[in-house]
Amino acid sequence: MIRQSTKLPKWWTLQLSCKRLYTTPSPVVLNFHEVHETGESENTVSPISEKEPTPVVVLHGLFGNSVTFRNILQKKDGILRGGRRAFVLDARNHGKSPHNSSITYEDMTQDLILFLKSRNIKKSILLGHSMGGKTILNTLLHHETFVKEYIEKSIVVDIAPMSYMNHPRWEVKQMLTAMESIPLERIQKRRDAEDHIKHLILDPKVRLFLLTNLVRPEEGENWTWKFNIKAIRNHINDVGGFPEIITNKKCAQKVLFVRGGTSFYVQEPEALDLIEKHFEDYKIKIVPNASHWVHTDNTPVFERVVRDLIENE
């Protein structure tokens, strides 16, 4: 049974309302799923025992939501073997989480901080892909005190703390333009939308991934996007970029960077230089036969690499 409970404790609501007088950005309450090998629940946190393995908190990438990682995490003898649990979050403006006019990495860091503190998750292992990975990197580099108290180690999937806005292989702008071109008021089914963009997005797997976010609230109503496409367009420079790193101190947190074997994101010299410059205790693992979508292109190897870090390092 799925139980719904998104209310925050009164003490946190009061604390949050006071902080909003003095700080920006304001965090939002994220939708999430608690996932075990044997099942899941939505927006509930079962009591966490001190004896149980450290939980994993998962942050998806741009245009994604919690569904893909939930499916991977529930595989028997996989990442969550041994009674470990995961909390898979929908980022702001994605999935079932609230839409907001702003979407920056500091926004998403504040959302993560709110989630962990308000749900009393004292220690966790962070796992983030692409945009979710950048959110983790921003948190590690700019919130040292919080990280020491709440984060045990981190896994960053196919991304580095840098801007990709001007990279010739960064195709997010083209994806966004293609989706914006779909006449939602005229299409009858997803196949119509796919036909409309197939000359703009040539990879059928990418088209399928994007169009899973196309939903029809009620029969006869216009199709709409799960994610907040307007906010993403307005903040595309923030999403494609990365906040200025204002510290010269290396992050001491243990970080595993997982790179797709055919992906450019972490093999660029600038990416490697920035990782070396800002992280003290890191490793880079390569998943062969995988593009940027590492976790779906080669799931068995991805699972093994992630599980090894979680259990053994």
From TrEMBL:
<dbReference type="InterPro" id="IPR029058">
    <property type="entry name" value="AB_hydrolase_fold"/>
</dbReference>
<comment type="similarity">
    <text>Belongs to the AB hydrolase superfamily.</text>
</comment>
<dbReference type="Pfam" id="PF00561">
    <property type="entry name" value="Abhydrolase_1"/>
</dbReference>
<feature type="domain" description="AB hydrolase-1">
    <location>
        <begin position="55"/>
        <end position="298"/>
    </location>
</feature>
<protein>
    <submittedName>
        <fullName>Alpha/beta hydrolase domain-containing protein</fullName>
    </submittedName>
</protein>
<dbReference type="GO" id="GO:0016787">
    <property type="term" value="F:hydrolase activity"/>
</dbReference>
<keyword id="KW-0378">Hydrolase</keyword>
<dbReference type="InterPro" id="IPR000073">
    <property type="entry name" value="AB_hydrolase_1"/>
</dbReference>
